[in-house]
Amino acid sequence: MTVIESQTPSRTNSPLPRAVITLVLIAVGFFLPRLLGGTSVAYSTLTTIAIFAVMCYGVDIVLSYLGEVSLGHTLFWAIGGYTAANLSVKYGLDGWTTALATIAFCLAAALFLGAVTLRTREFVFSLVTYAAAVVAYEVAFNWDAIGGSDGIVGIAALKLPLGVATFSGASQEDLWPVAFALLLLTLAFIARFRRSRLGTTALMVQMNPALAASLGVDPRKVRLAVFVISAPITGLAGWLYAYQRAYVGPDMFESYFLVMMLTAVVLIGRRILVGPLIGTALLIAQQNLLSLGGDWNKIILGSVLAIVLIFWPTGLAGLFRRFSKSKF
Amino acid sequence: MNVAQQIINGLVLGSGYACIALGWTILLGVARLVNFAHGQLYMLGAFVTWFAIAKIGLPYPVAILAAMIVLALLGALMQTAMMRLVMTQNLTSLMIVTLGLGYVLQGGSALLFGGNPQTLPGTLARAKVDLGPLWFTWQDVLVLAVTLALYGVVWLFTQKTRYGSVIRAVAEDPKLAELFGVNARVVYLLVFVFECSAVALGAALVAPRSPILTSMGFNEVIMTFVVVVLGGIGSIGGALLAGLGLGLFTAFFGAFVAPAYTTAAAFALLLALLVIRPAGLATK
């Protein structure tokens, strides 16, 4: 799995057309639900895709750039959901406050887990993150003060006071701009991360550990830093998911979300900026529009994950590249 | 709630943990591979046993054998599919692939066996033994005896025989081992097949104690993680001790502190250990 994505030449050359293309894509993206008919199904499906894509980007940072597997991101996903639900239902706090609290809790949880596993081997890190999610499930299931086995129902609509006006996301159509904005912010963050010192160092640790060591990089500290910044991304997705469903419960820990995150990242190919977004869109489209029932959907999702990694480790993008090369 | 009964409960729980963790210990310690489908394989082993007893009408010992054979075949299939990743020692991808395959097994089992909880009939789980105020079942005795015997045999096999050293040589450096005429693929295949039948045996012995569900998956065997890491990755004696110790800890914590949070407590124990001794208890 040591294939570095080669930058396509057209991407780096001219900055102005690139900015224009990006703006056009953003505009098209924003009006996409209306272009697809403007029905509530279009809005809710696209909102779900945006939320799930953000969820996947948390795992993407760790898996693509660090090359390690976090199996505990359902924990951050649930932290976001539970924070939004508890603070808004019990204390009537607005969306900004619950979002800030989500970020704070996710950073704290990731810092704790990362620090505890700092001196262990890589797969112990995966084991412990997975175990952490299972344990958190047990706690969420048994602790009635934060919802218990029934969860929390009746979360009020998302309220985001913006100076004089207050944004209120009561319906799926109202939530779409928030989900879209969160997705754009996440994409901008990932794009920035890819060029940052931490991002390039993480990639170096993954691709050439010997070089990294000779430059005095401690791979464990890099792992901790990347893990910690990845947590609030998935957490914020869970935060918005709570408002979208108006309910949170222990089902946020289901392995579905974990398998979904990993599949969306590897399906298109790792280290591709829009890869997880396209992967999420394809998978959600299958589950929502071409569903074969819960058990068959599980078989499909799990098989996609296993088959892609076994046969096309560079994902559909790598397959496409190989295919288009062989023609010339 | 007396202490002697809790010690018995602890040994009962602990031998179950150790029994289920044996396959993982061998896979991780001897072949340096991981398998995140372990929980679903446990579930499948339990359901194949249940199916053989309740639907086909086989006696319990034959049903155990059937479960071991079915899981061994499945293991061979899985390992053959993953062979390229195994030979390149791509642990990252192996973790994710096995997780995906586990999810497939979960969906497939729900289709095959239905979504209802089942209990295994015809086992020794109801054969109660009373010793004054203390009690346990013959099933518990069976689990403990088989676990101790298995750990003994596996320890002798891996540490004292030529085959054991061949397996360890492959784990150390598959390419180098192949230069010496060892077929690393076959060794990996056999170790993985062993893991799958070991977990089937563990499931057939341990699962009769409680109702089984196709969705139980990894939550059921989260203790396997704790046992394997506590015991010091791959140490056979360490895993047995960690399993029994964890069983005692769980029994006492459940009886005297809070039964709902035993897994959380075991996890807290694991985290504390990782800080104090990152390589596990067995290492010096």
State the secondary-structure class of chain A.
mainly alpha
What is the global morphology of chain A?
A: globular
Q: Summarize model confidence as the mean pLDDT of chain A.
A: 88
Helical content of chain A stands at over 70%
| Measured distance between first and last alpha carbons of chain A | 25 Å
Number of helices of chain B: 12
Question: What is the tally of beta strands of chain A?
Answer: 4
Distance between the termini of chain B: 37 Å
Major interchain interface with per-chain residue totals: A-B, 47 and 45 residues
Structural Rg of chain B = 19 Å
Order of helices and strands of chain B: HHHHEEHHHHHHHH
User: Could you say which overall geometry of chain B the principal axes of the C-alpha atoms support?
Assistant: globular
The H-and-E topology of chain A, N to C, reads as: HHHHHHEEEHHHHEHHHH
Instruction: Kindly provide the radius of gyration of chain A, computed on alpha-carbon positions and rounded to a whole number of angstroms.
Output: 20 Å
